[in-house]
Amino acid sequence: MEYETPLFFHVMEYADRAETDVIDMVSGNPDWEPPEALRTGLHEFADADPGRFQYPPSDGLVELRAEIADRRGVDIDQVVITNGAGEANYLAMARAMERNRGSEILLTEPVYPYYPGKTTMLGGTQRFVPTDETGQLDPADVRAAASDETAAIVVNSPNNPTGAVYPEETVRELVAIADAYDAILISDEVYDHFDLSGQFSSALGVDSDHRIVTNSFSKSLAITGFRVGYAIFPPELVANARSRHMLVNVAGSRPAQYAVLHALRETDPDYYRRNRELLRERVETFTDALDAAGAAYTTPQGAFYVMARFEGYPGTLANIEQLIDEIGVAGMPGDAFGDSRSDWLRFALVTPRVEEAAERLAQYFD
């Protein structure tokens, strides 16, 4: 069996090998500082008793799970700490498949490419539901695509790559569709702190035994390398998720979880607000330059990605490599996210050099 391999690391490695100065706009690695409390937590842990350096509970530090449960309004037993949102989504999709209610997973188009890869790895089949030009998902299209073979519906809001934020009525209807077909709605909410629209609605706001919510602290605390995420399961699905997590990972990182817990308890909400404001400024700077270049583009409602389309320059890997070689700007090919965006390029605005990258693109395509 061959799995779909996302292109992110290929593009990053190509950019690293370039002989010229390259501005990295490939992956969602925040360039800003993590909260001060996170560093404090790491320092505290470094001075802890050696016994604290051993295995944590497999499903995560009790204190961290309790903190998440309290913040999300769920029972602590529903929370499993994972190796980032990547593992959280894997566990959620696995539990959906293991229910033997079908083998098909509904995905949006365009799609974050790790979802199709996980579907194949778990022995499922993919079915794509198109979104509109802004990335919004019409629940009627999801309902039309759903069937008795639907094991799961996977959605991501705020969305990567489109930046769409699904309103409450969409989220409620998606849960209702999962209920109607005895499927599982998997709501990946990793960008929830980067809602620029004020419309974000968590699937946790809808009472149902047919939804799993996944998240992580990689983006919100600017710590993609710490790999601390979580999944919130319905009570009847959590036991096997814990077992799979234990068999694959044994446990997660105790120091990383300790530092995250300290950061959650001690970080003022203003930290998140400042980062959202920084992104608003970068979106405006970048899209102004795209206007100057005569490009079409998406204006994100959330997350930190902009998709752009330049006339006669499709979103292929070869064209991305050409931009790296000729102007030193590294983005992602639109066709990595599905056929519907094959004419587009995707740029991550998590670099202090957004303005410089925008100027290079504007000059190149002028």
Task: List key phrases describing it.
366 residues, alpha/beta, Aspartate Aminotransferase, domain 1, Aspartate Aminotransferase, domain 2, 2 domains, seven-stranded mixed beta sheet, four-stranded antiparallel beta sheet, 12 helices, 13 strands, transaminase activity, PyrdxlP-dep_Trfase, PyrdxlP-dep_Trfase_major, Aminotransferase, transferase
Describe the secondary-structure layout.
Blueprint: H1 8-17, E1 23-24, H2 36-46, H3 62-72, E2 79-82, H4 84-98, E3 104-109, H5 114-121, E4 125-130, H6 139-145, E5 150-156, H7 168-180, E6 184-188, E7 211-216, E8 229-232, H8 238-249, H9 254-266, H10 270-292, E9 296-297, E10 305-309, H11 317-327, E11 329-330, E12 332-333, E13 345-348, H12 354-365
Parallel strand pairs: 1-11, 3-4, 3-5, 5-6, 6-7
Antiparallel strand pairs: 2-8, 7-8, 9-10, 10-13, 12-13
Helix pairs in contact: 2-9, 4-5, 4-8, 10-12
Contiguous runs where pLDDT drops below 50 for at least 5 residues = none
Average residue-wise pLDDT: 96
Helix count, DSSP H or I runs of 4 or more residues: 12
What is the overall shape?
globular
Question: What's the number of structural domains?
Answer: 2
Distance between the termini: 45 Å
Number of strands: 13
In the sheet with the most strands, the strands line up as 2-8-7-6-5-3-4
Task: Indicate the CATH topology of the largest domain.
Answer: Aspartate Aminotransferase, domain 2
Question: Main β-sheet: number of strands, strand sense, barrel status?
Answer: 7 strands, mixed
| CATH H level, superfamily name of the largest domain | Type I PLP-dependent aspartate aminotransferase-like (Major domain)
